[in-house]
Amino acid sequence: MRTVVATLALVVAFTLPALAADQVEKAPPSGAYKKVSELVKLPDFLPGLGQLYVDPKTLPAGPFLAYDRDERLVSIVYMLPVEDLSNKDKRFDDLAAPGGRVDHVDVYFNAGHPGVEKPHAHVVLWHVPKADEQRVAAK
């Protein structure tokens, strides 16, 4: 009986950290993520991206979690400063995709906006098929 109790205690001890991991599939995400519109002067919903959340410690690169109007995760966005991309000594290693499987990736230039003022590249890791990107289109 003692062995069973000890085994159960170990299972619980190793399971709790996994249960405590950030939940990102539905907005608002758990953990240190904050709504971007509460951190900088941006609207709650950005057409083409959706509603964004970020852990402020990871700025300016992110990851930014992007949700549709039904609060479902659609993509992860990285905002990588152009000056860093052109610096041979700067690396962006181990960029996470907290939402799981990535369907496709878009990369495009942005001249800057509140929160990431410098020119940067948006690297969008879509978790939905191309046809479902309209879930974050303007209405």
Plain-language structure description:
This protein has one domain (24-136): Phosphorylase Kinase, domain 1 (2-Layer Sandwich). The chain has a six-stranded antiparallel β-sheet with strand order 1-2-3-4-6-5. It contains three helices and six strands. The chain is an alpha+beta fold. The chain has helices at 2-20, 36-39, 82-85, and strands at residues 34-35, 51-54, 64-67, 73-81, 104-110, 120-126. The relative contact order is 0.17. It is globular, with a radius of gyration of 18 Å.
Lateral strand order in the biggest sheet: 1-2-3-4-6-5
Helix-strand pattern, N to C?
HEHEEEHEE
> Structural class, judged by helices and strands?
alpha+beta
Number of helices: 3
How many discrete structural domains? 1
Anisotropy-based shape: globular
Strand residue content: 15-25%
Mean pLDDT: 85
Binned, the helix content reads: 10-25%
CATH class label: Alpha Beta
- CATH topology, by name, is Phosphorylase Kinase, domain 1
Distance between the termini: 61 Å
